[in-house]
Amino acid sequence: MSVLTALYSEVFDGYTIFGIVKETDADPEGLYEFQSKYFNGYPIYCDKSYAFYDALGDRKVGLDFFLNMLNPLSIFSAVCSTYQRITSKGIDGNVNKGEGFVQGGLLFFNHRGQPMAAYEEETGEDLRLQDIISAIYYVQNHYVTEQVQERQRQLENELELELQSAMTDKTVPETRPTTPDSESS
User: Fold this and answer.
1) Burial of 128 per CB tally in 10 Å (0-12, 13-18, 19+)
2) How many whole angstroms separate alpha carbon 82 and alpha carbon 168?
3) How far apart are CA 1 and CA 91, in angstroms?
4) pLDDT digits over 43-69, tens only?
5) Which DSSP category does 23 fall into?
6) Where do the DSSP E strands lie in the chain?
7) 136 closest CA partner among 20, 15, 44
8) How far apart are CA 166 and CA 99, in angstroms?
9) Residue 89 in contact with residue 28, Cβ under 8 Å?
10) Residue spans of alpha helices (H) in the chain
11) CA-CA distance, 24 to 31, in Å (whole number)?
12) Phi and psi dihedrals of 126, rounded to 5?
């Protein structure tokens, strides 16, 4: 998140960012290091009830992942690519603690706290930054659309009140019907 928020700081303006983890006792020192070094010091909360993970579909590493691990070449390839990816990003620490099978992701909420978009983590894959930025833009555009619609409703209500007021304030001059008798006098 620290790289993402640094690269796209203007996109993240006005957003509250926080992390959710499912366990804190597996590696408290590693969690602190993760928060301070890779998560920009944003707060991290423990989701003991798994509500966040349920909202993301309670996804676990799939059978395909394990079937690929039956092939020794796949295991070697996966370990090498993961190690290479982690070291190229300067990530250190023990990444092997915890149960490691539940997949996470990102949830994006609007200004009312309603979830608007989700980004699902894929084990062993880099975050697709463009997908994340697109989700943020979606939430922002939805918010702007809501604001425009709300302002349009306000203007329509104001216009309706003005019309009603004009109709009730309008004084109709009293007119008497003209008859042939009244014209001669």
Assistant:
1) exposed
2) 75
3) 13
4) 888 888 888 888 877 777 655 555 555
5) -
6) 19-21, 44-46, 105-109, 115-120
7) 15
8) 70
9) no
10) 2-7, 9-12, 28-33, 51-55, 63-68, 72-88, 129-169, 180-184
11) 7
12) -70, 155
